[in-house]
Amino acid sequence: MARYIFITGGVVSSLGKGLASAALGALLQARGFSVRLRKLDPYLNVDPGTMSPFEHGEVFVTDDGAETDLDLGHYERFTGVHARKTDSISSGRIYSNVLEKERRGDYLGKTIQVIPHVTNEIKDFIRIGDDEVDFMLCEIGGTVGDIEGLPFFEAIRQFAQDRPRGQCIFMHLTLLPYLAASGELKTKPTQHSVKELRAIGIAPDILVCRSEQPIPEREREKIGLFCNVRKDAVIAAYDLKSIYEAPLAYHAEGLDQAVLDAFQISPAPRPDLRKWEDVVDRIRNVDGEVNIAIVGKYTQLEDAYKSIKEALTHGGMANRVKVNVKWVDAEIFDREDAAPHLAGYHAILVPGGFGERGTEGKIKAAEFARTRRIPYLGICLGMQMAVIEAARNVAGLTRAGSEEFDHEAGAKRFEPVVYHLKEWVQGNHVVERKVGDQKGGTMRLGAYDATLAAGSRVAGIYGSSHIEERHRHRYEVDIKYRERLEACGLAFSGMSPDGRLPEIVEWRDHPWFIGVQFHPELKSKPFAPHPLFADFVRAAVETSRLV
Length: 547
Ligand code: GLN
What we know:
Helices cover about 35% and strands about 25% of the residues. By secondary structure, the protein is of the alpha/beta class.
């Protein structure tokens, strides 16, 4: 049976709970333990799939097709453990399960209440797969005291009580604000936050304190005394230059030791941190930099493209260069010429997206990269736009467009080179969709295989003719344009195994121009950069040497 670490937050949001959880997972792995990380989110959406990226940042997709919180991306990047559907839950999902059971009559006439029905549903979820790993790390979204979070806090309190003693610990993240006027770190908000937690029956074993200033010994003692936590379980979390320094920084502060102490695991296995030392070395010691433009729609919120940003960093690490990302709003060149905005970058990336706004600008970005011979990586919508650009400007299909935009306008303005997918094969069954289907969870989601053409650039990059990548889209490039586009030089170099769905396109006589229907960024790790990102950054380095 797994040991459980429950991670909560207080004082303010955005303290980096997800990152602390992921780094702790990595440290426990470094000591030879197996881990799984889970996120419990109090909001009422069934999953974040239907939320705007402006609301919630990126939607992270798992192999088994769940649309989850972006913290699951951190978990995977730090531990390499692929998340599953059962690693992400929201109040919305919990309530919808409970109500479904109520309608089925499963509760045998009982009155359905938060305690025990909702809390039981949460506890059942927490318990899934607990015989598979040494440690299960469960992060509760939001901050202690939020109305929506209460059933989750109550459920983890009960959970720890149900288990044998010593099987669950609680780690709480807080903030120590610094008052410049008095030159002091203030511990009161932390004290209040712990008080709030204790009022609902949870006594933290470990406190992780975010602070911009070193925490003096005296303050640690005070926090320990007032919050009823051992002094060496008061862990400082300072700001870091790179998130990938977090495992080593937390180790230096004694986080993993404090966790093992709390579980009374002794002697503690010695950690092997070489993997993380190499990662940090690759970030700190670089031989140059490249400038890459990301032409997207949600550019005001970097979290909307979290995994892409991280995958580019990993690509930089693979080549020992620093990648400077410039966010360029695609809508600017819906109206204006792209050239002045894109000149000077060593590579251009057009990420995924939904809806028509900004797409003419993305098409111009693809044209700019093709004609100026700048490395281009188009992801999902970025691939679709590259195909539309090729159809319009090279193959002479001047009205080429995507059905996605015609649905919105309710008119047939475009020749649908990209069309609404109604049927496809997943494993050994056929999935069917209609245009009017409900929006949540109905896209082509999760891991699918693709076959790569022998001799293509992508087959060389992957070093394989068979790949598996994660998808999240409703529209697809229409195979019926393949011949015409290939005759112009746009190779369909990756296809679904049944040969019906184009997965990758590449311009044959371009230094580096690749569009992929899937999301390679979701599988990149700092210690195992994704081959497409590693090679894309390599191509950018080459461009930088030419200018
Ligand atoms: N909107 C496009 C589709 O649904 C692309 C989706 C994406 O980029 N993730 O096919």
